[in-house]
Structure formats: structure tokens, C-alpha cells
Amino acid sequence: MGAVPSHDVLIIGAGLAGQRAAxxxxxxxxxxxxxxxxxxxxxxxxxxxxxxxxxxxxxxxxESHAFDTVKGSDYLGDQDAIEIMCREAPDEILWLxxxxxxxHRNESGHLxxxxxxGASAARTYYVAxxxxxxxxxxLYEQLMKHAQLxxxxxxxxxxxxxxxxxxxxxxxxxxxxxxxxLQVFNAKAVILASGGAGQAYKPTTNGLIVTGDxxxxxxxxxxxxxxxxxxxxxxxxxxxxxLLITEGARGEGAWLLNAxxxxxxxxxxxxxxxxxxxxxxxxxxxxxxxxxxxxxxxTVALDITKVPRRRTLEALREIVNIGRDFAGVDITRxxxxxxxxxxxxxxGVKTDVDGQTTIAGLYAAGEVACVSVHGxxxxxxxxxxxxxxxxxxxxxxxxxxxxxxxxxxxxxxxxSDTEKWIREIISRPGGGRRVSAIKDELGETMNQYxxxxxxxxxxxxxxxxxxxxxxxxxxxAIDDRGSVFNQDVIGAIELGYMLDCAEATVIGAIERKESRxxxxxxxxxxxxxxxxxxxxxxxxxxxxVPTISYSDVTITRWQPQERTY
Length: 565
Ligand SMILES: Cc1cc2nc3c(=O)[nH]c(=O)nc-3n(C[C@H](O)[C@H](O)[C@H](O)COP(=O)(O)OP(=O)(O)OC[C@H]3O[C@@H](n4cnc5c(N)ncnc54)[C@H](O)[C@@H]3O)c2cc1C
What we know:
The chain has 565 residues and is of the alpha/beta class. The chain has helices spanning 16-27, 62-72, 79-99, 131-145, 213-220, 248-251, 265-268, 278-290, 309-315, 317-327, 383-402, 415-426, 435-449, 456-472, 487-511, 529-532, and strands at 6-12, 32-36, 52-53, 113-114, 124-125, 150-154, 156-163, 169-176, 182-192, 225-226, 231-238, 255-257, 300-303, 336-345, 348-350, 362-364, 369-370, 534-539, 547-552. The structure holds flavin-adenine dinucleotide (FAD).
């Protein structure tokens, strides 16, 4: 191990949340390190397609954006956090534009918007259907511009968070993927920005790197997780491979049709139709499929031919490519078969509006975190906004705190435990069940029992399978025993993270005996505000069964109402 790098703020994850946090912390005067297991512009934010929300148009208001978000969350979102996000959104878009994001402009030359689900105004700003790509590259340019203030550790994998004797988070242990070297990082504050956990499901729209590392690492040192049962199924994903067809398609005017050619959303959301919130549309599709009105491949159709061809080729060109390359369909000329697929986790590491978790010195921002602005259901195009607003706020807060602190001395001896752990993975005998087989079983289990519709029996089955997989995982065989870019070792570690996340999801889903947002219990089909208008918090306690507690939902001005679209 080399000399211990010490920084005021250590950021784990270099997607949009992490990069925004790094810039904000550096601009507040802190020394910063940012770590990413992949090159930063390969972070999963690069896949974001449809856009980012803000009430920037003079006819729109942040209050309207906030109310739509509260309603979209099925009243589980914390309204103080939602107010902050929606109020600060317009300035963030302008900041991005001034930094160089080439947002779409309308015919009058102003920033143009598209409609998105659950929104009462067209307030989604976008760059064709590659918005995440555009944003991430501009932020990375800014990081390079601030290279003297921000040290980048690209292709370094964090294995553990470190605490001092008082339990404060003071750094992390990371593995340099290029040579397998382990390194302790010292910091006055650590910001987790390590993204979601979609790979715990199969299929998912999320890339292979989205394995819940930060959620599990925080959980393992005692941080509370919140609302983990709230898993978003996106209404339009391709059968088999789970690839996303952006909501931007429906925003531009595409229809959903069942196998009988009926525009079925008329029955489920007569006012918003295809642009109802995602939980509503996914349930509608799944109902059509379950009741025999879908296609034999378990899908319904998305008809993008309703959008003028020229517009599709201009504003949705990436899904033109996806349709052609992955489904053999020219979406400008024929409908494409889609179904609901795992896409996003609303829950995560519980934080306040400045990103502070329940562990001193540890912050979280982006999909790893639960602030909670999405509650039971995230509105499309609110996640990019969440990453940037709460990434920035976490960076600023962590930096301000750090400026008044002495550098802690990190318990560097802990690295020997990690060395032992990795040696044990590498020396496992061959021939056992493979990491990939266990991961597949986990993903398929979650997709079968912890999906759009859930019930007690299915959730219990999922829980028991996960418990078994947790016993099998520490024995799973790997092939590569080398030290250079050993993805087998990383895969074995990530499997453990995904199992922790999945277990917390199932425990939360079993606990919540009502239907709200993305959690639809066929055995408890109604929303029950009297008993369940509260967050479910989950924390480890040294036994096999974690502690469940509840916290209040913050309501500022919007009392819960019946939710119709
Ligand atoms: C296909 C797709 C399209 C989407 N489109 C939109 C959209 O149009 N609008 C919208 O608002 N939202 C969209 N979303 C959601 C949104 O893109 C994500 O929620 C958001 O980008 C997450 O950003 P993040 O910064 O939190 O994490 P990520 O971008 O996932 O970054 C995570 C970072 O953490 C690092 N990391 C993880 N684990 C470790 C570890 N152990 N050690 C070191 N580094 C680690 C990774 O390398 C990466 O740098 C979409 C999602 C998908 C999957």
C-alpha cells in the first residue's frame, strides 16, 4: 500500500451526482478526490435519454413541478426536499447550459421542452435522446478544467467504508483495478455517489456496473436505508434484453396499443393517457398482458409511427438505432413490442436535504440516496435533476464542514481484512456454482416476485431464495486469479452488494402492507394513509434480521389526495 492520500472530501462515484458534488466541493474550497470503478464518462448516467425537468418557462411554476412530483410519489416523497429540488431546478439548467450543454432549442431559439409522464406542463429539457451523455461529458470537461482541485482515481473500486472509533466515516478502502493494489483513502467527509442497484434484477434497463455497491457499503457500517421496497418498473422496455425505449417517445406522441389494437390507457388514465406516471402505466400494461390482451411474447405495442417521422429521426434517433439493432424493428414505420421492466430504485441510503446520512461524515447523493424526493414513484426526468441538485448540495455541505476540521487518521490496519477477503475469493476451489449463475437466479427471482404486482407468498419465496443465495455467494467460484483488471473478483464482491440490496427491498416490501406508488400488493390493493403514510427504514443490528423502523413523511403544503391521471 502506498502513502495514504488525504483529501477534505472523498467522493465515491463519478456519474452526474459524483461529478457535480466534486465541482461544488472544489468551488467551496475543499481538496477533493473522486473515485470511479469505470472511466467517469462510462458511468451509468451516460445512458439517460429523455431529459431533465425544470419549471424554467415563465408560464410554468416550481410549485406546479413540486405538486406533480408529490402526486407522482404517491405522497411518500418528503415535501421539504421536493420543494428544494423544484425551486433550484431552473438555475441548475441554466448553469448546465452556460457550462456548455447543447440543450434543444425551439423555433424561436429558446430552450425547448418535451412532455413527460405525470407532469402538468411540458418541462423536460433535453438533448435529442442522449441527454445523460451530453450532461456527463460537459461535467467531465469541467472536472478536467478543475484538475488542480480535484484528484481523479479512474478505474478504482471501493470495497469498504472506514470509520474511526466514534463511528465517523473517515475514508474508504479501494482497489486499483489496473494492478489489484489496495489503497486506503483518508478524508474528512465521504460522499457516496455510486448509483443504483438495477442489476439485482434480470432483465433491467441498467448497465452491468449498477450493482448497489454504495447502498450495501453504507448499510454494512450501520447507515439506515429507506423506502427500499420502491422499485420502478419503466413501462417501455424491450422483451428479453430489457433495453429502454425512452419515455420521450410517449412525450413526443407515441401510443400504447394492446394486441387487439386498443389504446388501452383510455381505461386506466383517461386524462393523461400514455403520460400518466410510470407506476400507473406499467400496471396498466401488465394488466392487459395478464388478462390475455397482450402479444404472445408477453408484451404490448408502442406505436411511435404516431410521431412525424422527421421528428423521430431528429429527436429520438437513439431509440431508432435500438429498435433496429436489438428488435429488428424500424420504429418510424411499425409499432415495437415492449413491456414493463426494472429501471430505477426510489429507495436508498437515507439522507437529509444536504446529503447527510445517519452516519457522521458520510453523505449520499444521486440514485444511491433516498432524500426522499421520489417517494413511491419517480417522475421521468426527475432523476437527473435529483443527482445534480443533491450532488451539488452534498458537495457544498461536506466541503463547508471539512474546512473547520482536522484531517482524521484513518484506521489503515483495516486494509489487512480486505486483503484477506480478496485472497479468500481468489483461492476458492473451482467447480462450485458460478457468480453469474447466482446473479441470474437473484435477478429472475426479483423479476418474478418483487415486480409490478406483489403478494405475501411471492415475497416470502423471494426472501427465502435470497437467504439461500446469501449462503451460496461466499463460495461462488471464479476463474481469473490474476491481479490485472480482475473483473471476476469484482463480480464476486458486487454479488454480495446486490444480495444485500435485494434483501432490504424484499424486507421492505413484506413490511409495507398496502399499495402505494410502485409497491402494488394484490393482497392489500388499497393505499392506506392511516397506517402507512410513513417511510420504512432498515438498518443492520449484528443479527441476520435487520431492524425495521419508521420515519415520518414531511408534508409542507400538499395533503394526500386520491391519485388519478
Ligand atoms: C437507460 C436509462 C435511461 C435513463 N434516462 C433518464 C432520463 O432521461 N432522465 C432522468 O432524469 N433519469 C434517467 N435515468 C435515470 C438516471 O440516469 C440515473 O438515476 C442517474 O443517472 C444516476 O446517476 P448517479 O450519478 O446517481 O449514478 P451513476 O451515473 O450510475 O454513477 C455511479 C458511479 O459510481 C461508481 N461506482 C459504483 N460503485 C463503485 C465502487 N464500488 N467503487 C468505485 N466506484 C463505484 C461508478 O463507476 C459510477 O461512476 C435513466 C436511467 C437509465 C438506466
